[in-house]
C-alpha cells in the first residue's frame, strides 16, 4: 500500500520530499481549503506543513481537532525555533527545518506514518476469511432495513468484544450507519462528520471481508459524502435518499 504524504506549502519549499519513489506519493497543495479534504480523500499517512504558509497554524489545529484526521501525524517545517515550538503546542508531532526533514524523512515515515504493517494486513486477511458473526449478521439486517440506530448498538457491542484489525470492519459499518441516521434526521454536519471518520477504517479493508462487499460500501458511502458536500447544509432537503444503499454480500461487483 503506497504511503500518501499531503504537503501544504506556499511554494516549492517542500521539494525535498521523495515524490519519485514508487511506494511514496506526494500531494502538494497551495490552497489551505483543500488540505482537510485531501487528508481524508487520500487516506494520508503523513502531513507536512510549511510554516510560511499563512494558514499553517490554523490548518494544524483543524486537522488535530477533527476525529477524521487527528490520528494523522503532522510535521511542520520551519527554520524558526519559536515557530516550531508553537507548532508542537498546536498539536504537530514534529517540527523540523528543511535539512532535518530531508535527513529524517525515511525514519519519520517508518515510525510515524499510518501505514498498516504486513503483520496487521495478514491478521486482517485471516479474519476476513471467516464467516460473519451472528451479532454482525443482525447488524447487517438492521442496517439494510434502515434501522440505523439499532445497527449502531449491535456493531458497537461486537466492536467492543472483538480483538485485532477486524474491529475496523465493524467500526466502519457502524459509522456509515450513524451517518445515514443523522442524514435522515436532517443533521448535515453530523452526517458529514461520521462519513469522514469512516474513511480511515474503510480504506485498509479488503474488497471482501467476512462475505461482505466492502468495495461497494466504500463506493456507496463515498458517493453519499460527495453528494452532501455538493449540496451543502442549505440544500440537504434535495438529497436523493436512493443513494443510501444496503450492505451487500459476496464478490465485489466491477
Task: Give me the side-by-side strand order of the main sheet.
Answer: 2-1-3-4-5
The arrangement of helices and strands along the chain is EEHEHEHEHHHHHHEEH
CA radius of gyration: 20 Å
Count of extended strands: 7
Quaternary organisation: single chain
- The CATH superfamily title of the largest domain: TTHA0068-like
Separate helix tally: 10
**CATH architecture label name of the largest domain:** Orthogonal Bundle
The biggest sheet, with number of strands, parallel, antiparallel or mixed sense and barrel status, is: 5 strands, parallel
- N→C terminal distance: 21 Å
Mean pLDDT figure: 89
Tell me the β content.
5-15%
Structurally, the number of domains stands at 2
CATH C-level of the largest domain: Mainly Alpha
The helix fraction, in percent, is: 40-55%
Shape: globular
Instruction: Classify the fold: give the CATH topology of the largest domain.
Output: Hyaluronidase domain-like
Helix/strand/pairing category:
alpha/beta
Amino acid at each position: 500500500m503506497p504511503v500518501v504524504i499531503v504537503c501544504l506549502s506556499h511554494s516549492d519549499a517542500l521539494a525535498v520530499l521523495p515524490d519519485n519513489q514508487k511506494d511514496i506519493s506526494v500531494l502538494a497543495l497551495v490552497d489551505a481549503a483543500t488540505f482537510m479534504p485531501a487528508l481524508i480523500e487520500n487516506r494520508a499517512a503523513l502531513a507536512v506543513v510549511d510554516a510560511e504558509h499563512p494558514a499553517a497554524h490554523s490548518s494544524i489545529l483543524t486537522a488535530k481537532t477533527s476525529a477524521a484526521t487527528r490520528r494523522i501525524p503532522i510535521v511542520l517545517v520551519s527554520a524558526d525555533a519559536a515557530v516550531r515550538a508553537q507548532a508542537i503546542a498546536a498539536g504537530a508531532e514534529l517540527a523540523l527545518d528543511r535539512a532535518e526533514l530531508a535527513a529524517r524523512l525515511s525514519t519519520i515515515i517508518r515510525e510515524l506514518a499510518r501505514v498498516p504493517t504486513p503483520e496487521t494486513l495478514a491478521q486482517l486477511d485471516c479474519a476476513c476469511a471467516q464467516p460473519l458473526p451472528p451479532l454482525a449478521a443482525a447488524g447487517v439486517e438492521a442496517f439494510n432495513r434502515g434501522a440505523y440506530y439499532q445497527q449502531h448498538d449491535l456493531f458497537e457491542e461486537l466492536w467492543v468484544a472483538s480483538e485485532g484489525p477486524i474491529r475496523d470492519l465493524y467500526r466502519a459499518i457502524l459509522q456509515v450507519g450513524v451517518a445515514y441516521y443523522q442524514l435522515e434526521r436532517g443533521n448535515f454536519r453530523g452526517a458529514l462528520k461520521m462519513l469522514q471518520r469512516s474513511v480511515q477504517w474503510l480504506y485498509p479493508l479488503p474488497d471482501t471481508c467476512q462475505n461482505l462487499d466492502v468495495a461497494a460500501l466504500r463506493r456507496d458511502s463515498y458517493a453519499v459524502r460527495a453528494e452532501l458536500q455538493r449540496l451543502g447544509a442549505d440544500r440537504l432537503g434535495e438529497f436523493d435518499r436512493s443513494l443510501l444503499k444496503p450492505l451487500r454480500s459476496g464478490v465485489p461487483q466491477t
